[in-house]
Amino acid sequence: MLIFLQMKAQFNNMNKLSIALAIGAGVIALTSACSVTIPKGAKAVKPFDGDRYLGKWYEIARLDFKFEKHLNNVTAQYSKGEEGMIKVLNRGYHVIKKEWKESTGKAKFVRDPQEARLKVSFFGPFYAGYNVIAIDKDYQYALVAGNNLDYLWILSREKTIPENIKNQYLQQAKDLGYQTQNLVWTHHNQIP
Fold first, then answer.
1. Distance between CA atoms of residues 57 and 153, nearest Å
2. What DSSP designation does 10 have?
3. What is the CATH class of 50-185?
4. Using an 8 Å Cβ cutoff, are 38 and 54 in contact?
5. How confident is the model at residue 25, as a pLDDT?
6. Which of these, 34, 56, 39, 55, lies nearest to 148 by C-alpha position?
7. 118-151 in b/e burial notation, b at 16+ Cβ within 10 A?
8. Can you tell me the distance from the alpha carbon of 165 to that of 143, in angstroms, rounded to the nearest whole number?
9. Average pLDDT over the chain, rounded to whole?
10. Where are the domains positioned within the chain?
């Protein structure tokens, strides 16, 4: 009987340990899902004026990923949201389905609003990095990096970008290790 009681106590201790480990793993997974990074060697713009960044931006180029696949005429509209958040409205025309797609999300500064490191979410508590790593003095052109070298955008207030700015941003991205030959150059044309 004593052996049975000892085995039961060990089982209960192992069961408690398993539960504690499972809870700990869940907390770590949720924390890492909500944490955001910036690619190694990249630096977010600082000082940064978030109010000047608001408004409409045209996507000039991107590293393609599943949520933007087959999209042209892509724009991002940033506006003030509730409780210091930034409302994000991404819009693009799916050239195969021949329909507009929209996605609404929210963004907030990672730490200091004077540093262009933000985290953006379109899916509940899950955030991704949105790091403005280059911007001109008039806030007309921007180079944006994601969490890692899989995400990159070149943005403009107009549907085009001057060649010298484009080349400068491409070189900066290459220097960080981005595969700029894989960029998708967004078309902005009239849709019926």
1. 11
2. H
3. mainly beta
4. no
5. 39
6. 39
7. bbbbeeeeebbbbbbbbbeeebebbbbbbbbbeb
8. 10
9. 86
10. 1-34, 50-185
Q: What is the pLDDT of residues 127-148, one digit of tens each?
A: 999 999 999 999 999 999 999 9
> Two tokens at 121?
């979410």
pTM over 0.85: no
**How far is residue 185 from each of residues 64, 127, 137, 154, 192, measured CA to CA in Å?**
10, 25, 24, 9, 21
Peptide bond into 192 cis (omega under 30): no
CA–CA separation, 116 vs 30, rounded Å? 24
Query: What pLDDT score does 13 carry?
Result: 52
Which tokens belong to 112?
A: 């200091």
Question: pLDDT tens digit string along 79-119?
Answer: 999 888 999 999 999 999 999 999 999 999 999 999 999 99
Residue pair 176/169 in contact (Cβ under 8 Å)? The answer is: no
